[in-house]
Amino acid sequence: MTAGICRWLARQGIRVAPFKAQxxxxxxxxxxxxxxxxxxxAMQAAAARVEPSALMNPVLLKPGGDRTSQVVLMGKAxxxxxxxxxxxxxxxxxxxxxxxxxxLEELRRTHDAVICEGAGSPAEINLRRSDIVNMGLARAAGLxxxxxxxxxxxxVFASLFGTTALLAQEDQALLAGYLVNxxxxxxxxxxxxxxxxxxxxxxxxxxxLPFQHGLGIDEEDGLRLSLRAAVREAASAxxxxxxxxxxxxxxxxxxxxxxxVDALAAEPGVVVRFSDRxxxxxxxxxxxxxxxxxxxxxxxxxxxxxxxxxxxxxxxxGRPVLGICGGYQLLGERIEDEVxxxxxxxxxxxxxxxxxxxxxxxxxxxxxGTALGERAExxxxxxxxxxxxxxxxxxxxxxxGSVWGTHWHGSLxxxxxxxxxxxxxxxxxxxxxVPAPDTGFAALREEQLDRLGDLIEEHADxxxxxxxxxxxxxxxLPFIPPGAP
Length: 485
Description:
Layout: H1 2-11, E1 16-19, E2 22-24, E3 28-30, E4 36-38, H2 39-48, E5 59-63, E6 68-73, E7 76-82, H3 83-88, H4 93-110, E8 113-116, H5 135-141, E9 145-150, H6 156-166, H7 169-172, E10 175-183, H8 191-201, E11 205-210, H9 225-232, E12 245-249, E13 255-256, H10 262-265, E14 270-274, E15 286-289, E16 291-292, H11 295-304, H12 307-317, E17 321-324, H13 326-330, E18 334-337, E19 344-347, E20 354-365, E21 368-371, E22 374-377, E23 380-388, E24 392-394, E25 397-400, E26 403-406, H14 415-429, H15 441-459, H16 462-471
Parallel strand pairs: 1-8, 2-5, 9-10, 10-11, 12-14, 12-15, 15-17, 17-26, 18-20
Antiparallel strand pairs: 3-4, 5-6, 6-7, 13-16, 18-19, 20-23, 21-22, 24-25, 25-26
């Protein structure tokens, strides 16, 4: 919804920026000045047609397990913390609200409008005292608020009313209305409920957006095969007489930046699936080991499930394997980790002539280079530093036989390089695969963002949205006490 509003405003010639005060995600991105932010905010910046900035996501939490996260403040990692520690000591509201509000004010000074995304629900009353991303931010900055309900999950009216009733009176004063998302069917059947909701709360619904099939954008988190399939729908069938290329992606623990494989799925004739059993790798032409925030943990997971042996057999048979970032590191000979897992020295899978040592300082970079005769660019986010002792250089990583490894996220979005890599993979796999010469990943992503903008323009009350942006929440909104009506 945030991305769609940003694209709609940008098309009106309004200089708009996205903002999310606090994001929890393992999918992140590196800005041109070397700051790490949530990948969702980078996607929203693309929707707004502006350069991503740390100002757009001042606090990023990167989970390292069920109870711990790395805290990234204004694009730089500042420490590892438990949930209790984050919401207790360092995460005291006054410690983080000030830089968050300063970042928002800077964006407001340099843009005509800023669209702020919340997180989870504004009615998480157990976290309200430390909240800096939902109503805590809205009250601190005086922002009008719309609550979005996902009707595809069911219970949308109860959710919208209950959310309103659980908010404090000062918070309710900023809640100006509702948006309903992912509706299937005739909207006229929903209108009586929307009118009843307006009478109960005194707040209008500013739009009902229909469910859209084949809509794929960069996700914050959550493994969704439909995301890959959605992007692929925009592409044509494989060239006549060409084989289909099958790609298996291993869903390793704490998987990060799985969006790397979206560009593969966008290629006509490439089928991408997530596989976690050795037998599912047997018919794959390429296996991808993606990034992870827990390299040593992922290594243990591969061994426990028999996937380590399956990868070794592939390498021995000359069948392609690609490791990206943490996936590249665990394909090496040895890992020395006193930072992420603190496991000390751990033997890797030994498929690449690489030794990795984890440093406390995180590498954040936007590299460019050449591989397979084509230009490529990407971004790096890692604590592990690789020492390569052999093989063939490959995007600052290496290749040994049919096993490839690189720290570069996003490199497969470079169209010429992606096609050259797929041709090499197809040759190694014995496939007659021919990449389509006109598949441009950036253009496909732009089409998806335009579709989001179209949804807002066609199905939301854009005049009401502009009034909220220009004038804020209207005065005199009624207070709904808990338990009403």
